[in-house]
Amino acid sequence: MALYEFSDGILKTHVTRENVEETLQKTFNTEAKFGDNKNAINISNMKGYMPINALIEVDWVNKEEDRQLPSRFAVKISTQVPLLELSKIIKFSGENGFGEDKLKRLGKTTREFHNREVDSYKLLMRYNHPNIPYTKVYGFKKFDDDNDLKGFLIVDYVENGHVICTSAAEEKLHFKGETTLRWQV
């Protein structure tokens, strides 16, 4: 199996509801489980070409009375499946497309990007600086030698959040053509 292959997990990825449930159980120190009423919606909308962003809605069962558990959250799943979709839309083929050899090589980069993002969030959470806003993180799974298909990040779902491109470098440093991604809520 590879990151560019469909699977039977959330939104046809390798990450399963059980993976997410177990991670949240550890985070919130609970034995509550996802009930039958659960839903996963792809909210990626072509925002990015490597992850699939899923809005997950669950009803928790066997929840402790004093426990507050999120019923809606986002899961950023590191996968290469969107690259295949992008290739179809742009009509990339041949050496310009995302063939199996290229996707295998990009797999290493995909895993490294995901692990660096997780490490960045771990630093943000550790220092929790009041002037550096970031999304509340509920849990994550890094890629490693024993896990090369299930990298994910579980975060608070921010309604109407959008990624926009701005020319921050051009504005501040007078470099032409540089862009930076920023979250705007």
Describe this structure in words.
Keywords: Kinase, Transferase. GO terms for molecular function: kinase activity. This protein is α+β, with helices and mostly antiparallel strands and about 180 residues long. It has one domain. It has four helices and seven strands; from the N terminus they run H-E-E-E-H-H-E-E-E-H-E. A five-stranded antiparallel β-sheet has the order 1-2-3-5-4, with helices on both faces. Strands 6-7 form a two-stranded antiparallel sheet. It is globular and about 55 Å long.
Q: List the uncertain runs.
A: 172-185
* Mean of pLDDT: 85
- Calculate the terminal CA-CA distance, rounded to whole Å: 37 Å
Q: How many strands, what sense, and barrel or not for the largest sheet?
A: 5 strands, antiparallel
Helix content: 25-40%
Estimate what percentage of residues fall within beta strands: 25-35%
Tell me which oligomeric state these chains represent. single chain
Q: What pattern of helices and strands is seen along the backbone?
A: HEEEHHEEEHE
Cα-atom radius of gyration: 18 Å
For the largest beta sheet, what order do the strands appear in spatially?
1-2-3-5-4
Can you tell me the number of structural domains? Answer: 1
Overall geometry comes to globular
Specify the structural class: alpha+beta
State the main characteristics:
single chain; alpha+beta; two-stranded antiparallel ribbon; 26% strand; disordered C terminus
How is this structure best summarized?
With 185 residues, this protein is α+β, with helices and mostly antiparallel strands.
Topology, please?
Blueprint: H1 17-28, E1 33-42, E2 51-61, E3 72-78, H2 81-90, H3 100-127, E4 137-141, E5 151-156, E6 162-166, H4 168-173, E7 180-184
Keywords: Kinase, Transferase
Protein name: Protein kinase domain-containing protein
GO molecular function: kinase activity
